[in-house]
What does this fold into?
Amino acid sequence: MSWSGRLAALWPRAPAEDEEGTEPDPRFTFANERTFLAWSRTALALVVAGLGIVQLLPPFPGVPVGRHLLGVPLIVLGAVLAVAAYSEWIRNQRALRRGEPLPRSVMPWVLAATITMMAVISAIVVLLSAAR
It folds into this structure.
């Protein structure tokens, strides 16, 4: 199997018009798309914030890896969120086509947990830096 075939097998496929179910009300389709775009903007903001922290924030005295401890997880979260947003859009669109309830999203929990973790790491880095 080629690389493109392997990637296609892993990547969620957008619902096709000939797939089972009916075309949902355009308002719901547009709302689903707006939600996807909102998550995509959040992902982009996280990546840019992580890059800004790693590249532009002055080093923390006594904590040489402090910028990386704060920035790299944000960049990774942004990448994960971008992929998850697309996957959620696909799942929601399929549910709309089939007239099923929308699947639960884990993205708000993942985002909240990661931001909480980042706040704890930030506090530790600042306290270690102030102690030196």
